[in-house]
Design goal:
This protein is of the alpha/beta class and 427 residues long. Helices cover 33% and strands 21% of the residues. The chain binds guanosine-5'-diphosphate.
Amino acid sequence: MSTIAIIGGQWGDEGKGKVVDLLAQEAQVIVRFSGGDNAGHTVINPYGEFKLHLVPVGIFSPHAVCIIGNGVVINPAVLIDELDQLNQRGVDTTRLFISDRAHLIMPYHILLDGLEEESRAGKAIGTTRRGIGPAFADKVARLGIRTGDLLDEEVLLERLRFILDYKNIMLTKIYGVSPLPLDEVYGKYCRYGERLAPHIRETATMLEEALSREELVLLEGAQGALLDPDFGTYPYTTSSSPLVGGSCLGAGLSPFRINRALGVFKAYCTRVGAGPMPTELKDEIGDLIRDRAHEYGTTTGRPRRCGWFDAVAARFSTRINGFTGIVVTRLDILDGFAQLKICVGYELDGDKTDYFPASVAALERCQPIYEELPGWQASIRHIRQYEQLPIEARQYIARLEELTSCPVNLICVGPGREENIYKTPIF
Ligand code: GDP
Protein backbone atom coordinates (compact mmCIF):
# COMPACT_ATOMS: atom_id res chain seq x y z
CA MET A 1 0.00 0.00 0.00
CA SER A 2 2.24 2.81 1.24
CA THR A 3 4.95 3.97 3.58
CA ILE A 4 4.48 7.12 5.66
CA ALA A 5 7.30 8.68 7.67
CA ILE A 6 6.12 10.64 10.72
CA ILE A 7 8.80 13.13 11.62
CA GLY A 8 9.21 15.77 14.31
CA GLY A 9 9.54 19.13 12.57
CA GLN A 10 10.95 21.10 15.52
CA TRP A 11 13.07 20.16 18.56
CA GLY A 12 11.10 17.05 19.49
CA ASP A 13 8.06 16.50 21.74
CA GLU A 14 5.73 17.68 18.98
CA GLY A 15 3.15 14.98 19.68
CA LYS A 16 4.39 12.38 17.18
CA GLY A 17 3.25 9.62 19.51
CA LYS A 18 -0.36 10.68 19.28
CA VAL A 19 -0.17 10.97 15.48
CA VAL A 20 1.40 7.51 15.14
CA ASP A 21 -1.20 6.07 17.53
CA LEU A 22 -3.93 7.52 15.35
CA LEU A 23 -2.55 6.37 11.99
CA ALA A 24 -1.52 3.00 13.41
CA GLN A 25 -5.20 2.06 13.48
CA GLU A 26 -4.90 1.56 9.71
CA ALA A 27 -1.29 0.31 9.55
CA GLN A 28 0.13 -3.21 9.47
CA VAL A 29 3.72 -2.35 10.42
CA ILE A 30 5.17 0.42 12.60
CA VAL A 31 8.94 0.92 12.74
CA ARG A 32 10.89 3.04 15.18
CA PHE A 33 14.09 4.03 13.38
CA SER A 34 16.32 6.33 15.46
CA GLY A 35 17.36 7.47 18.92
CA GLY A 36 17.13 5.44 22.08
CA ASP A 37 15.31 5.67 25.39
CA ASN A 38 16.16 9.39 25.51
CA ALA A 39 13.06 9.86 23.38
CA GLY A 40 9.66 9.42 24.92
CA HIS A 41 6.14 9.49 23.64
CA THR A 42 3.12 10.04 25.83
CA VAL A 43 0.04 8.36 24.45
CA ILE A 44 -3.50 8.45 25.80
CA ASN A 45 -5.74 5.81 24.27
CA PRO A 46 -8.43 3.31 25.34
CA TYR A 47 -5.76 1.25 27.22
CA GLY A 48 -4.92 4.28 29.41
CA GLU A 49 -1.99 6.68 29.53
CA PHE A 50 1.44 5.35 28.57
CA LYS A 51 4.92 6.77 28.41
CA LEU A 52 6.89 4.75 25.86
CA HIS A 53 10.60 5.18 25.31
CA LEU A 54 11.56 2.32 22.99
CA VAL A 55 8.53 0.25 22.01
CA PRO A 56 6.81 1.76 18.94
CA VAL A 57 3.45 3.35 19.66
CA GLY A 58 1.89 0.93 17.16
CA ILE A 59 1.94 -1.73 19.91
CA PHE A 60 -1.57 -0.56 20.82
CA SER A 61 -2.94 -1.66 17.45
CA PRO A 62 -3.68 -5.34 18.07
CA HIS A 63 -3.20 -6.35 14.44
CA ALA A 64 0.04 -4.44 13.78
CA VAL A 65 3.61 -5.68 13.82
CA CYS A 66 6.07 -3.35 15.57
CA ILE A 67 9.75 -3.15 14.78
CA ILE A 68 12.63 -1.49 16.60
CA GLY A 69 14.92 -0.83 13.66
CA ASN A 70 18.67 -1.07 13.28
CA GLY A 71 18.98 2.71 13.74
CA VAL A 72 17.87 2.61 17.38
CA VAL A 73 20.24 2.03 20.31
CA ILE A 74 18.68 -0.21 22.92
CA ASN A 75 19.10 -0.31 26.66
CA PRO A 76 17.84 -3.88 27.25
CA ALA A 77 16.89 -3.18 30.88
CA VAL A 78 14.64 -0.29 29.81
CA LEU A 79 13.12 -2.31 26.98
CA ILE A 80 12.37 -5.31 29.22
CA ASP A 81 10.82 -3.03 31.83
CA GLU A 82 8.63 -1.41 29.17
CA LEU A 83 7.53 -4.84 27.87
CA ASP A 84 6.68 -5.96 31.43
CA GLN A 85 4.60 -2.86 32.05
CA LEU A 86 2.71 -3.26 28.78
CA ASN A 87 2.08 -6.94 29.51
CA GLN A 88 0.80 -6.15 32.99
CA ARG A 89 -1.71 -3.75 31.48
CA GLY A 90 -2.97 -6.29 28.98
CA VAL A 91 -1.08 -5.15 25.86
CA ASP A 92 0.22 -8.02 23.71
CA THR A 93 3.94 -7.57 23.01
CA THR A 94 4.61 -10.77 21.05
CA ARG A 95 4.28 -8.68 17.88
CA LEU A 96 7.36 -6.65 18.74
CA PHE A 97 10.53 -7.41 16.78
CA ILE A 98 14.00 -5.97 17.25
CA SER A 99 16.56 -5.66 14.49
CA ASP A 100 19.58 -7.89 15.08
CA ARG A 101 21.63 -4.95 13.79
CA ALA A 102 20.48 -2.50 16.49
CA HIS A 103 23.27 -1.52 18.87
CA LEU A 104 23.10 -2.04 22.62
CA ILE A 105 23.60 0.51 25.33
CA MET A 106 26.11 -0.92 27.76
CA PRO A 107 26.70 0.10 31.40
CA TYR A 108 29.89 1.98 30.44
CA HIS A 109 27.93 4.12 27.97
CA ILE A 110 25.69 5.34 30.76
CA LEU A 111 28.62 5.98 33.08
CA LEU A 112 30.60 7.81 30.40
CA ASP A 113 27.59 9.91 29.34
CA GLY A 114 27.37 11.37 32.86
CA LEU A 115 31.14 11.74 33.28
CA GLU A 116 31.54 13.45 29.90
CA GLU A 117 28.67 15.86 30.59
CA GLU A 118 30.23 16.76 33.96
CA SER A 119 33.61 17.35 32.36
CA ARG A 120 31.99 19.80 29.89
CA ALA A 121 30.86 21.88 32.89
CA GLY A 122 29.24 25.10 31.57
CA LYS A 123 29.30 23.71 28.01
CA ALA A 124 27.21 20.62 28.80
CA ILE A 125 25.00 19.49 25.90
CA GLY A 126 22.13 18.68 28.21
CA THR A 127 22.00 14.98 27.30
CA THR A 128 19.60 12.71 29.15
CA ARG A 129 22.65 10.79 30.50
CA ARG A 130 21.22 7.50 29.32
CA GLY A 131 24.27 6.49 27.30
CA ILE A 132 22.72 7.21 23.91
CA GLY A 133 25.50 9.48 22.57
CA PRO A 134 28.34 7.18 23.69
CA ALA A 135 26.53 4.14 22.21
CA PHE A 136 26.18 5.86 18.82
CA ALA A 137 29.82 7.02 19.04
CA ASP A 138 30.90 3.41 19.59
CA LYS A 139 28.77 2.27 16.64
CA VAL A 140 30.73 4.58 14.36
CA ALA A 141 34.03 3.77 16.09
CA ARG A 142 33.29 0.07 15.43
CA LEU A 143 33.30 -0.68 19.14
CA GLY A 144 29.62 -1.47 19.42
CA ILE A 145 27.82 -4.61 20.55
CA ARG A 146 24.61 -5.43 18.69
CA THR A 147 21.43 -7.20 19.72
CA GLY A 148 22.36 -10.03 17.37
CA ASP A 149 25.48 -10.62 19.49
CA LEU A 150 23.22 -11.50 22.43
CA LEU A 151 22.11 -14.61 20.56
CA ASP A 152 25.55 -16.23 20.79
CA GLU A 153 27.08 -16.16 24.28
CA GLU A 154 30.58 -16.99 23.02
CA VAL A 155 30.56 -14.17 20.50
CA LEU A 156 29.22 -11.84 23.19
CA LEU A 157 31.94 -12.80 25.67
CA GLU A 158 34.74 -12.35 23.16
CA ARG A 159 33.44 -8.96 21.99
CA LEU A 160 32.73 -7.72 25.51
CA ARG A 161 36.14 -8.77 26.83
CA PHE A 162 37.90 -6.82 24.08
CA ILE A 163 35.78 -3.67 24.44
CA LEU A 164 35.48 -3.65 28.22
CA ASP A 165 39.28 -3.74 28.64
CA TYR A 166 39.47 -0.54 26.65
CA LYS A 167 36.50 1.12 28.40
CA ASN A 168 37.87 0.26 31.83
CA ILE A 169 41.10 2.05 30.97
CA MET A 170 39.05 5.16 30.17
CA LEU A 171 36.98 4.84 33.34
CA THR A 172 39.95 4.36 35.66
CA LYS A 173 42.73 6.38 34.03
CA ILE A 174 40.79 9.34 32.63
CA TYR A 175 37.86 9.65 35.00
CA GLY A 176 39.30 7.96 38.11
CA VAL A 177 36.27 5.76 38.76
CA SER A 178 36.05 2.01 39.41
CA PRO A 179 36.29 -0.44 36.49
CA LEU A 180 33.30 -2.57 35.49
CA PRO A 181 33.78 -6.32 36.20
CA LEU A 182 33.55 -8.45 33.05
CA ASP A 183 31.67 -11.36 34.66
CA GLU A 184 29.00 -9.06 36.07
CA VAL A 185 28.31 -7.25 32.79
CA TYR A 186 28.47 -10.50 30.82
CA GLY A 187 26.07 -12.32 33.15
CA LYS A 188 23.58 -9.48 33.02
CA TYR A 189 23.64 -9.25 29.20
CA CYS A 190 23.33 -13.05 28.84
CA ARG A 191 20.10 -12.82 30.87
CA TYR A 192 18.86 -9.94 28.72
CA GLY A 193 19.67 -12.03 25.66
CA GLU A 194 17.58 -14.97 26.91
CA ARG A 195 14.64 -12.70 27.54
CA LEU A 196 14.83 -10.75 24.27
CA ALA A 197 15.82 -13.64 21.95
CA PRO A 198 12.24 -14.35 20.76
CA HIS A 199 12.00 -10.75 19.54
CA ILE A 200 15.37 -10.42 17.76
CA ARG A 201 15.16 -10.80 13.96
CA GLU A 202 16.50 -9.70 10.61
CA THR A 203 13.83 -7.01 10.39
CA ALA A 204 14.72 -5.36 7.06
CA THR A 205 13.48 -8.55 5.36
CA MET A 206 10.24 -8.44 7.36
CA LEU A 207 9.74 -4.90 6.11
CA GLU A 208 10.44 -5.86 2.52
CA GLU A 209 7.91 -8.68 2.77
CA ALA A 210 5.28 -6.35 4.25
CA LEU A 211 5.79 -3.91 1.38
CA SER A 212 5.50 -6.68 -1.19
CA ARG A 213 2.14 -7.56 0.42
CA GLU A 214 1.23 -3.87 -0.11
CA GLU A 215 0.78 -3.23 3.60
CA LEU A 216 0.75 0.21 5.20
CA VAL A 217 4.06 0.87 6.96
CA LEU A 218 4.60 3.77 9.37
CA LEU A 219 8.09 5.03 10.16
CA GLU A 220 7.86 6.43 13.67
CA GLY A 221 10.21 9.34 14.26
CA ALA A 222 11.79 10.27 17.56
CA GLN A 223 13.07 13.74 18.54
CA GLY A 224 12.89 16.42 15.85
CA ALA A 225 14.58 17.70 12.70
CA LEU A 226 16.31 20.60 14.46
CA LEU A 227 18.15 18.07 16.63
CA ASP A 228 19.62 16.28 13.60
CA PRO A 229 23.42 15.95 13.94
CA ASP A 230 23.93 17.43 10.45
CA PHE A 231 21.10 19.93 10.06
CA GLY A 232 20.22 20.72 13.67
CA THR A 233 21.80 23.16 16.08
CA TYR A 234 25.11 21.29 16.28
CA PRO A 235 26.63 20.47 18.78
CA TYR A 236 23.36 20.78 20.73
CA THR A 237 21.85 17.91 18.82
CA THR A 238 21.01 14.28 19.20
CA SER A 239 23.30 11.52 17.94
CA SER A 240 21.22 9.87 15.20
CA SER A 241 19.25 11.38 12.35
CA PRO A 242 15.57 12.02 13.10
CA LEU A 243 14.98 13.12 9.47
CA VAL A 244 13.11 11.35 6.68
CA GLY A 245 16.55 10.50 5.28
CA GLY A 246 17.45 8.90 8.60
CA SER A 247 14.29 6.83 8.52
CA CYS A 248 15.50 4.92 5.44
CA LEU A 249 18.80 4.00 7.05
CA GLY A 250 17.40 3.35 10.49
CA ALA A 251 14.58 1.12 9.31
CA GLY A 252 16.46 -0.60 6.46
CA LEU A 253 14.35 0.73 3.60
CA SER A 254 15.04 2.31 0.23
CA PRO A 255 14.16 6.03 -0.05
CA PHE A 256 12.08 5.12 -3.10
CA ARG A 257 9.75 3.15 -0.83
CA ILE A 258 8.60 6.21 1.13
CA ASN A 259 5.41 7.70 -0.28
CA ARG A 260 4.53 10.37 2.26
CA ALA A 261 6.42 12.32 4.91
CA LEU A 262 4.38 14.03 7.58
CA GLY A 263 6.03 16.83 9.54
CA VAL A 264 4.61 17.10 13.03
CA PHE A 265 4.75 20.63 14.46
CA LYS A 266 3.39 22.11 17.65
CA ALA A 267 1.38 25.28 17.12
CA TYR A 268 4.17 27.00 19.08
CA CYS A 269 7.78 25.94 19.84
CA THR A 270 9.45 24.11 22.69
CA ARG A 271 12.94 22.91 23.32
CA VAL A 272 14.39 20.87 26.16
CA GLY A 273 18.07 21.05 27.12
CA ALA A 274 20.70 23.50 25.96
CA GLY A 275 21.17 25.15 22.55
CA PRO A 276 19.75 28.08 20.62
CA MET A 277 16.01 28.66 20.26
CA PRO A 278 15.40 32.05 18.64
CA THR A 279 11.74 32.42 19.68
CA GLU A 280 12.18 31.36 23.32
CA LEU A 281 10.00 33.47 25.64
CA LYS A 282 11.63 34.06 29.00
CA ASP A 283 8.60 35.95 30.26
CA GLU A 284 5.12 35.33 31.61
CA ILE A 285 3.81 34.27 28.18
CA GLY A 286 6.44 31.51 28.05
CA ASP A 287 5.48 30.47 31.59
CA LEU A 288 1.81 30.53 30.67
CA ILE A 289 2.35 28.24 27.67
CA ARG A 290 4.49 25.87 29.79
CA ASP A 291 1.95 25.62 32.58
CA ARG A 292 -1.08 25.39 30.37
CA ALA A 293 0.51 22.74 28.16
CA HIS A 294 2.34 20.88 30.96
CA GLU A 295 5.56 21.26 29.00
CA TYR A 296 7.83 18.99 31.04
CA GLY A 297 9.89 16.22 29.39
CA THR A 298 8.40 12.70 29.19
CA THR A 299 11.78 11.08 29.83
CA THR A 300 13.49 13.50 32.20
CA GLY A 301 10.71 15.68 33.65
CA ARG A 302 12.81 18.73 32.72
CA PRO A 303 10.81 21.94 32.09
CA ARG A 304 10.71 22.70 28.37
CA ARG A 305 11.63 26.13 27.03
CA CYS A 306 8.59 27.62 25.28
CA GLY A 307 8.14 30.23 22.57
CA TRP A 308 6.19 31.35 19.53
CA PHE A 309 6.05 29.33 16.31
CA ASP A 310 9.27 29.76 14.37
CA ALA A 311 8.38 29.67 10.68
CA VAL A 312 12.02 30.18 9.60
CA ALA A 313 12.99 26.97 11.36
CA ALA A 314 9.79 25.24 10.16
CA ARG A 315 10.45 26.12 6.52
CA PHE A 316 14.02 24.82 6.83
CA SER A 317 12.83 21.61 8.41
CA THR A 318 10.10 21.16 5.78
CA ARG A 319 12.65 21.57 3.00
CA ILE A 320 15.34 19.21 4.31
CA ASN A 321 12.71 16.54 4.96
CA GLY A 322 10.56 17.14 1.88
CA PHE A 323 7.39 17.00 3.93
CA THR A 324 4.33 16.20 1.84
CA GLY A 325 2.03 17.41 4.62
CA ILE A 326 2.04 18.93 8.07
CA VAL A 327 0.30 17.93 11.29
CA VAL A 328 -0.21 20.86 13.67
CA THR A 329 -0.60 19.63 17.24
CA ARG A 330 -1.70 21.46 20.40
CA LEU A 331 -3.59 24.22 18.63
CA ASP A 332 -5.90 24.19 21.67
CA ILE A 333 -3.07 25.50 23.86
CA LEU A 334 -3.32 28.83 22.04
CA ASP A 335 -7.01 29.26 23.01
CA GLY A 336 -7.76 32.61 24.61
CA PHE A 337 -4.63 34.55 23.62
CA ALA A 338 -5.54 38.07 22.47
CA GLN A 339 -2.61 38.17 20.03
CA LEU A 340 -0.47 35.42 18.56
CA LYS A 341 2.96 35.83 17.06
CA ILE A 342 4.72 33.90 14.31
CA CYS A 343 8.42 34.40 13.63
CA VAL A 344 8.69 35.09 9.88
CA GLY A 345 12.36 36.08 9.69
CA TYR A 346 15.46 36.77 11.77
CA GLU A 347 17.49 39.88 12.21
CA LEU A 348 21.12 38.86 12.25
CA ASP A 349 23.80 41.49 12.87
CA GLY A 350 21.60 44.21 11.43
CA ASP A 351 20.50 42.25 8.34
CA LYS A 352 17.26 40.42 7.72
CA THR A 353 17.39 36.76 6.84
CA ASP A 354 14.83 34.03 6.35
CA TYR A 355 17.46 31.27 6.46
CA PHE A 356 18.16 29.04 9.48
CA PRO A 357 21.93 29.44 10.00
CA ALA A 358 24.25 26.48 10.53
CA SER A 359 26.26 28.27 13.20
CA VAL A 360 25.04 28.08 16.77
CA ALA A 361 26.82 31.39 17.49
CA ALA A 362 24.88 33.07 14.65
CA LEU A 363 21.60 31.51 15.77
CA GLU A 364 22.18 32.81 19.30
CA ARG A 365 22.42 36.33 17.83
CA CYS A 366 19.27 35.97 15.68
CA GLN A 367 16.45 38.21 16.82
CA PRO A 368 13.03 36.99 15.71
CA ILE A 369 10.98 39.22 13.42
CA TYR A 370 7.35 38.65 14.36
CA GLU A 371 4.10 38.93 12.54
CA GLU A 372 1.08 39.40 14.82
CA LEU A 373 -2.19 37.64 14.26
CA PRO A 374 -5.41 37.94 16.27
CA GLY A 375 -6.12 35.09 18.67
CA TRP A 376 -9.44 33.31 19.18
CA GLN A 377 -11.42 33.67 22.37
CA ALA A 378 -13.05 30.24 22.64
CA SER A 379 -12.13 26.65 23.41
CA ILE A 380 -11.59 24.61 20.23
CA ARG A 381 -11.17 21.17 21.83
CA HIS A 382 -14.63 19.95 20.86
CA ILE A 383 -14.30 20.98 17.19
CA ARG A 384 -13.92 18.22 14.56
CA GLN A 385 -14.61 20.12 11.29
CA TYR A 386 -12.14 22.63 9.91
CA GLU A 387 -14.89 25.04 8.87
CA GLN A 388 -16.12 25.20 12.47
CA LEU A 389 -12.82 26.54 13.80
CA PRO A 390 -12.91 30.26 14.65
CA ILE A 391 -11.83 32.40 11.70
CA GLU A 392 -8.70 33.47 13.61
CA ALA A 393 -7.62 29.84 14.07
CA ARG A 394 -8.12 29.19 10.37
CA GLN A 395 -6.08 32.30 9.55
CA TYR A 396 -3.31 31.05 11.82
CA ILE A 397 -3.24 27.65 10.08
CA ALA A 398 -3.40 29.25 6.63
CA ARG A 399 -0.42 31.43 7.49
CA LEU A 400 1.60 28.39 8.62
CA GLU A 401 0.81 26.73 5.29
CA GLU A 402 1.94 29.82 3.36
CA LEU A 403 5.14 30.25 5.33
CA THR A 404 6.15 26.59 5.02
CA SER A 405 4.75 26.12 1.49
CA CYS A 406 3.26 22.86 2.70
CA PRO A 407 -0.38 21.82 3.20
CA VAL A 408 -1.66 21.08 6.69
CA ASN A 409 -3.27 17.64 6.62
CA LEU A 410 -4.29 17.28 10.22
CA ILE A 411 -4.82 19.54 13.26
CA CYS A 412 -4.82 18.16 16.81
CA VAL A 413 -6.91 20.00 19.38
CA GLY A 414 -6.42 17.75 22.40
CA PRO A 415 -4.39 14.74 23.59
CA GLY A 416 -7.16 12.17 23.01
CA ARG A 417 -7.19 9.89 19.97
CA GLU A 418 -10.36 11.49 18.60
CA GLU A 419 -9.45 15.14 19.25
CA ASN A 420 -8.47 15.94 15.67
CA ILE A 421 -9.54 17.88 12.62
CA TYR A 422 -8.71 16.50 9.17
CA LYS A 423 -8.09 19.45 6.87
CA THR A 424 -6.74 17.90 3.67
CA PRO A 425 -6.20 14.22 2.86
CA ILE A 426 -2.81 12.71 3.72
CA PHE A 427 -2.82 10.85 0.37
P1 GDP B 1 6.28 13.11 21.12
O1 GDP B 1 7.55 12.57 21.67
O2 GDP B 1 6.52 13.91 19.87
O3 GDP B 1 5.24 12.07 20.95
O4 GDP B 1 5.72 14.18 22.15
P2 GDP B 1 5.48 14.04 23.74
O5 GDP B 1 4.91 12.75 24.09
O6 GDP B 1 6.70 14.47 24.47
O7 GDP B 1 4.44 15.24 23.99
C1 GDP B 1 3.27 15.27 23.37
C2 GDP B 1 2.23 15.50 24.45
O8 GDP B 1 1.22 16.30 23.91
C3 GDP B 1 1.55 14.23 24.91
O9 GDP B 1 1.28 14.34 26.28
C4 GDP B 1 0.26 14.20 24.10
O10 GDP B 1 -0.78 13.52 24.75
C5 GDP B 1 -0.04 15.66 23.99
N1 GDP B 1 -0.76 16.09 22.81
C6 GDP B 1 -0.60 15.66 21.53
N2 GDP B 1 -1.41 16.36 20.72
C7 GDP B 1 -2.05 17.27 21.50
C8 GDP B 1 -3.00 18.32 21.24
O11 GDP B 1 -3.38 18.58 20.12
N3 GDP B 1 -3.42 19.06 22.31
C9 GDP B 1 -2.99 18.84 23.57
N4 GDP B 1 -3.46 19.61 24.54
N5 GDP B 1 -2.10 17.86 23.86
C10 GDP B 1 -1.65 17.10 22.84
